[in-house]
From TrEMBL:
Record's subcellular location: Cell outer membrane
Keyword terms of this UniProt record: Cell outer membrane, Membrane, Receptor, Signal, TonB box, Transmembrane, Transmembrane beta strand, Transport
Pfam families according to UniProt: Plug, TonB_dep_Rec_b-barrel
TonB-dependent receptor plug domain: residues covered: 50-145
Record's keyword annotation contains Membrane: yes
Signal peptide: 1-23
Residue intervals of the TonB-dependent receptor-like beta-barrel domain: 212-641
GO molecular function: siderophore uptake transmembrane transporter activity
Protein name, entry field: Uncharacterized protein
Keyword Transport: yes
BP terms from Gene Ontology: siderophore transmembrane transport
Lineage: Bacteria, Pseudomonadati, Bacteroidota, Chitinophagia, Chitinophagales
Protein family according to the UniProt entry: Belongs to the TonB-dependent receptor family.
GO cellular component, one term: cell outer membrane
Length: 668
């Protein structure tokens, strides 16, 4: 009840804030300013000032990606740590900087987790997603929350509900996906275009799966075929979205979202011991609101964002040896967030922006000796963007202040850090297909509550983990005639340096680990992305997307250590993806590939710690049926066509060959 009252009060603030702002406008203003939508238009990835990649809704429907975590694997430079199955945890690392350095935005507002510092992307379904964008360094728009500048890379999840397209007409869809290992995934959503430039959107989805896929344990004469156990998943997520566009073209958006899941956690595969009884429950609820307005002939922009979040996690392990008959840990995390940003065109080619964000986070738990940490965070940014016809220059500075308090024991020291970034792109001539781009960015990540205060291993003396990013790249984009219509190619070389890397170090006993600032990592790599499309005839068109990453991520902490200049954990030298599709009238067929080279699960790179590379092939065929003003799409897919046996995380085998059939009925 207390949480409900807090959320209601917070929503009330969201209601009053834009109302107060709109009340300042004159009643005589009754016409829409014609360029508001245009000012929100997203730049194309291949023309961005820093490396950007995007997967639109059409592409998301053509790949084996039930969650955002699965879809992110199709970006170059991305590593997704996947523990297998429909309900397996999935975290993203961009250019080997770690999940804690990757920012996640959902409909323009940051997602955070102060407890672990990383987001489980398996919670986010792609069913109602319009696009997923990955931006290195800073996002393209100058009008954004200050918190967005704090990440080394930003993964943005965008839905129709927070777009002015929702105002145009009523839309609805209902779908069902079924597949191997007892998968059932029903979904339904509706968007209503209401009078007075308002829209209401409601969507919901459930996932039910046994997840008991077969796998093979190779142990010579004692090898066996068996099935994963404790892999059942039941989850439900739903959203209510409201969008209002005012007469002066200002927009106000409110989202109320909930996620509830119950997941078995299949443990690491150990020969002669298949028992796994750990279980995880999640309950996540939040309300967020955003108000955006351009005025003064669109020379001035205003963005106000707010969010309140409650996240509950319960972890149960009956086999844990203690006097309580196992573990039953329960954590409840709260965060309240407010942001204000302004932008101003001060000269013909110069735009200045400033933003200030504040967040309050706290964590409660039923754990003995818990310190009940609270964190107050403040971000203040200033950015300049200078644009000429042939080149663009962008610079920013972010001041971050973080203060922790605990009920018992010492708290971490207060942090005040100023971090800059710089980016440039340019072309020699207006019609040149080539573009050069480069950027530098300095970021840090604050230790999480677990790093600082987790019982037995937490260390309140930890310093932030710093990362410096350097990038230089070239883009080639051209239109052509014939079978190939468009060709876009980008290649970016980069160097990342991490110092004071936070690592867990064992003590005198197995249970005496502690967190220390010991690590230094040197990361060199090249990301290559290509998109090609064309047509064989008026009725047959095709599309191809290729991504490749070469990366050398080395531990350079201690020259006397056996791990010195060895590859860091789970980082292959070579990885990538491919996607190809062909459309003929109402038919679409496609193929996708994901591959990874060899990796190591421990810091010492020897044959015993080596994990073999893998390649996964998926195919699909879909048919669209038009029934009056409605459409029915039927899709069949075969995943892991060659039944590749592989692990993303060692001893957590991934599913072999599987199938899915999906039905989507809509009026879109």
């Amino acid at each position: 009840m207390k949480t409900a009252l807090i959320i209601s009060a917070f929503l009330g603030v969201g209601l009053l804030l834009p109302a107060a702002l709109v009340a300042q406008q004159k009643d005589s203003v009754i016409t829409l300013e014609k360029v508001t939508v245009g000012s929100q238009k997203k730049k194309q990835p291949f023309t961005a000032i820093t490396p950007a990649q995007s997967l639109n809704r059409q592409t998301l429907q053509q790949i084996n990606a039930p969650s955002v975590g699965d879809a992110a694997r199709f970006f170059s430079g991305v590593l997704v740590k996947d523990y297998g199955g429909v309900g397996g945890l999935k975290t993203i690392s961009v250019r080997s900087l770690g999940a804690q350095h990757t920012g996640i935005n959902y409909d323009g507002i940051p997602v955070s987790d102060a407890q672990t510092g990383q987001i489980d992307l398996s919670k986010y379904s792609v069913t109602f997603v319009q696009s997923i964008d990955l931006q290195q360094a800073n996002a393209q728009t100058v009008l954004q929350p200050a918190r967005a500048y704090a990440a080394a890379a930003v993964l943005s999840i965008n839905t129709l509900s927070f777009s002015t397209e929702a105002l145009q007409r009523n839309r609805w869809q209902a779908g069902l996906r079924a597949g191997s290992f007892g998968l059932w995934q029903p979904s339904a959503g509706i968007n209503l275009a209401l009078p007075k430039q308002m829209a209401l959107g409601i969507n919901a989805e459930g996932v039910f799966s046994k997840g008991n896929y077969p796998y093979y344990v190779d142990n010579g004469s004692s090898s066996l075929n068996t099935k994963r156990k404790n892999t059942d998943v039941q989850s439900f997520q739903g959203e209510i979205n409201m969008l209002k566009q005012f007469a002066d073209s200002a927009t106000w958006q409110v989202k109320l979202s909930g996620y509830n899941s119950s997941r078995g956690l299949p443990g690491a595969v150990t020969f002669y011991n298949e028992r796994s009884v750990q279980h995880l429950w999640n309950e996540d609820y939040y309300v967020q609101s955003r108000y955006r307005k351009f005025f003064n002939h669109n020379n001035t922009g205003l963005l106000i964002s707010a969010k309140a979040t409650r996240s509950y996690t319960r972890y149960r392990d009956p086999d844990y040896q203690n006097n309580s008959g196992g573990l039953d840990n329960r954590y409840t995390q709260y965060e309240y967030y407010l942001s204000a940003a302004v932008s101003q065109i001060v000269l013909e080619h110069l735009t200045v922006s400033a933003s200030s964000d504040a967040a309050y986070s706290k964590l409660n738990a039923n754990v003995v000796g818990f310190v009940y940490p609270e964190r107050k965070s403040f971000w203040n940014s200033m950015a300049l963007n200078y644009t000429r016809p042939l080149w663009q220059l962008n610079g920013s500075a972010l001041l971050t202040t973080i203060n922790d308090e605990v009920k018992t024991g010492p708290a971490a020291s207060t942090i005040n850090k100023l971090t800059p970034s710089f980016a440039f792109n340019g072309k020699l001539t207006a019609h040149s297909p080539f573009m050069l781009r480069l950027f530098y960015k300095h970021v840090f990540r604050m230790p999480s509550f677990d790093d600082l205060y987790y019982r037995l291993i937490g260390n309140t003396s930890l310093h932030p983990e710093y990362a410096r990013q350097y990038n230089i790249g070239v883009v080639y984009a051209t239109a052509m005639k014939g079978v190939v219509k468009h060709l876009q190619l980008s290649a970016d070389a980069y160097y990342n340096s991490i110092r004071d890397k936070i690592v867990a170090v064992p003590g005198k006993t197995l249970f005496g680990w502690t967190m220390l600032n010991l690590g230094k990592v040197s990361i060199k790599g090249v990301d290559v992305t290509a998109e090609i499309d064309g047509a064989f005839s008026e009725q047959v068109n095709w599309f191809t997307r290729l991504n490749y990453t070469f990366q050398h991520a080395l531990d350079v902490t201690d020259p006397t250590s056996v791990t010195y200049k060895n590859r860091i954990l789970y980082t292959p030298d070579h990885s990538g993806s491919a996607l190809a599709s062909v459309n003929y009238r109402q038919w679409t067929a496609g193929y996708s590939l994901l591959f990874s080279g060899i990796r190591y699960d421990l810091g010492e790179n020897n044959p015993h710690n080596q994990i073999e590379g893998w390649g996964i092939h998926d195919v699909f065929v879909s048919r669209r049926f038009n029934i009056k003003q409605y459409a029915l799409q039927v899709k069949g897919e075969l995943n892991n066509l060659t039944d590749q046996k592989y692990d993303v995380v060692r001893f957590f085998p991934m599913p072999g060959r599987s199938w899915k059939i999906s039905l989507l009925f809509n009026n879109l």
